[in-house]
Known about the structure:
By secondary structure, the protein is α+β, with helices and mostly antiparallel strands. It is built from 10 helices and 10 strands. The chain has 3 domains: about 5-100, Butyryl-Coa Dehydrogenase, subunit A, domain 1, CATH 1.10.540; about 105-190, Butyryl-CoA Dehydrogenase, subunit A, domain 2; about 195-339, Butyryl-CoA Dehydrogenase, subunit A, domain 3. Belongs to the acyl-CoA dehydrogenase family. This is Acyl-CoA dehydrogenase.
Amino acid sequence: MTREFADLHAELRSVARSLLAAGQPEWTVIAQAGWPGLEITESLGGAGVSFAETAVVGEELGRAAARTSHLGGSLGIGALLALPPDTARDHALVGAAEGTELPVAVLSTGERADIGFTLAANGLNGTADFVPDATEATRLLIPTLDSSGRPVLVDIESDTSGLTVTPRPTLDGSRRLASVTADAAQPSQVWPFPATQQLLNRATVTVAADCLGLAEAMLAATVDYVRIRHQFGRPIGSFQAVKHACADMLVQIRVTRSLVETAVDAVAADSDATAAASMAKAYASDTAVAVAGKAMQLHGGIGYTWESGVHVYLKRATLNRSLFGSPTAHRRALAARLR
């Protein structure tokens, strides 16, 4: 990963694990830990580090399968950081760093990255489905096309007339998704915004980092279990088939880490991260599903029970695979780039 603040990573991981082990923190608790302000400049109340450190937190959230508003909030802050400084933008960033504001970016999470909103004379119109953390947002930041077809970023308060945010139930109970619909809603601020693809890359890599942490947690839990579970008078981890299964999981995770770190570096450096993000997301989301599934199998009968907790990770991995493009969609996009 980006090495400028690499000496902070071990401490950041330790603090994150301690906080997440204590329960499911709300946005204000997350703000007190300093996570929303990691990339915000010190003059606005942040730490002034990089996306590499945000990705470390994202990985730990996946490791804990935590139910927080960090995904949507991180993307909202990323959208604000992509804008030139001005009074409204800086005010929103100060509020996010303090925990008094939860800005959430409204992005398509499906197969295509189309902009689903338009800004006309009567206001904002359009819809987006399965938006992370939109129900908790204090403000929504929506990539939009204006009447001339130019990309802009619309800042709109969550209680604005004409704006509807509807929770959507999903397989994964650790995430909160919603549909966002605007019907002649009046925005409070509009900025030129040519950075929609960069924001999508950030979203894609954030989910890939979550998948990496999730897969590592499942491997660790499985190794611990096969050491203590005995069958035929010996630990099941001593059987060759179990050893090979765990070794395969480890190889997949190491490849995933390499791809995710490369993609994180590209996003942190503000370079063209589209290809790296697609490679990381395609491989990481497949790995997370495969490792969680294998973990359930190696836990035996208890792995299929509610009490084991493995199902929480498998459901999260399954949803992660669909968020911001499936592996198939990203591989198709990579193939198109190489033609």
